Every structure is written in structure tokens, then in C-alpha cells.
């Protein structure tokens, strides 16, 4: 590749092994950016500025022109001040993963990164994952969201983050690489919904919709079964009880979907988990080598979906 001023920063970065230093250790806690993590390289505009300043200095020395010397030294001082301010704009920032909620395959995963910018003003600081577009923040930011496509079920790691800035002059670029122990659970893509008339025929017994009284509310009960009017009058959480509440639990079984591929089976079971939870049923999940007992509520839903997402993982 022919030499050019535009490619020089990338060559310096490769020579200094900067790109790979962020992968030497993964992080488990908050990290404050300091001089050991921050690297500064000139931008293409900075290289052009430096070359122009050198030419002006040579011209000033050749003609012994005091005004040219004054302008040249002024430009050099401006560049040095810009170098220090670029470093200060990123130094002292503390970052840590805050929230990584699970998603379904095909959706967009969102990693929330908590930011503590300190007391010093910050401007135009970017946070980037891989080749995606940067998320920009300043002194007022408290949380930055980094997005990534969830294309496969299982786990999606946050991976290496690049924190960078070229503020204020754009002549230098300060950057730091971070690699956290953080991953999002990606659930299987749910299969298309089935005919609700067929579901009702299988899921409900005769008399299942007959109201027969109340029972005490228990953690994990669906909010749709709470008698909110009675709770408002008495201040006690009560669940409506219907004639079909005591029917046998519904087992979601891997073997019921013979003839389909592994991913299709997982998608169908994922849909059944969502439908059973929406209907307020007690359900259980049976997979090869894994069995989750009957239950209901958000915790049961998350346990089942997590087992589906990590099925077959090492």
C-alpha cells in the first residue's frame, strides 16, 4: 500500500498494537479511564495541520520573518492545547454495564452502560460496539444504550467497546478499549400463533369460566386474575378463582413436536410458553436432559425461555 498521510494513523495504531490491547483482560466491574487505557493519535486533519505548521516554520526561518514565527508558534501552542484538552475530555470517565434485558431472536438487543462523567465538562464523547454507529454523550448523560442485532438464540456478548473523542479541535483522537463480562440471553424466535379456538378447546375444561370465589394472592400470580375492586375496598390482594383452576398442569414437551428440526421445536415450545403464561395456566417444560416443574408467573416464564435459549449450549 503506498504511503499517505491519511493512512498513517492506522499504521501507527497497528504498530503500537492498540487494537488488541483492549482484549487482553475482560472486565467485571466499573472502570475509570486513565492514562494507562487512553491512546492518542493524530487525525488526518491533525497530520495536515502538523505538516502545514512545519512548512510555515521552515519558511519563517528561511526569511527570518518575526510575524511568521509568531503565527507558527501560536499554531503550535494551539495544537498542544488541543492535545491536552482532547485527553482531558475522556480521562476520568467511569463506565460499567447497568442492564442487559433478554430479547427474542430477530429483535434488537440493548446493552445499557452506566456513565459517570465526573465534575469536568464533557463534549462529543462516543461509545461504539464493533462496526456499529457510535452513541454520543456528554456531561449530562447517566446511561448510554448500545444496540446490536440478535440474530441467533443463545447468548450475545457485549464484546469490545470503543470510547473515543476528537473534541475540541479534531486534530487528535483519544480512544480507549473496554471488554466487559456481559451477555444478553437471546430467546428463540416464537413460532406463529396458533388458532385460538383450538387453544381454548385444549386449555379449558367445561366450567373453567365460572367464578366460584376468591383466594389469597400469591407471588407470581398473573395480574389479570387479581380482583382489583375487592382489593381497593379491603386493601387485601385477592385472586379470582374459577371452576377450572384446579385442572392438571399443562406440560410442554419436546417429544410432542417430532418431525421438526431443533430450531423449529424450540420456536414452537417458545410460542407455547408465551401462550400458557398469557392464559394464566400452570405449565411445565420438558426438554432432553432438562425438566422445569409446574409454575406460573414471570419467574416461570423466564426459566422456561432461558432453558430454550441455552438448549444445546456448551
Strand order of the largest sheet: 2-11-10-6-7
In this structure, how is the largest beta sheet organized?
Answer: 5 strands, antiparallel
Mean pLDDT over the full residue set: 82
The helix-strand sequence is HHEEHHEEEEEEEEEEHEHEEHEEH
Number of helices: 8
Distance between the termini: 43 Å
Query: What does the oligomeric state look like here?
Result: single chain
Helix percent band: 25-40%
Strand % is 25-35%
Number of domains: 3
Class computed from helices, strands and strand pairing: alpha+beta
Which blocks of ≥5 consecutive residues have pLDDT under 50? 19-25, 197-208
The total beta strand count reads 17
Assign an overall shape: elongated
Specify Rg, calculated over alpha carbons: 30 Å
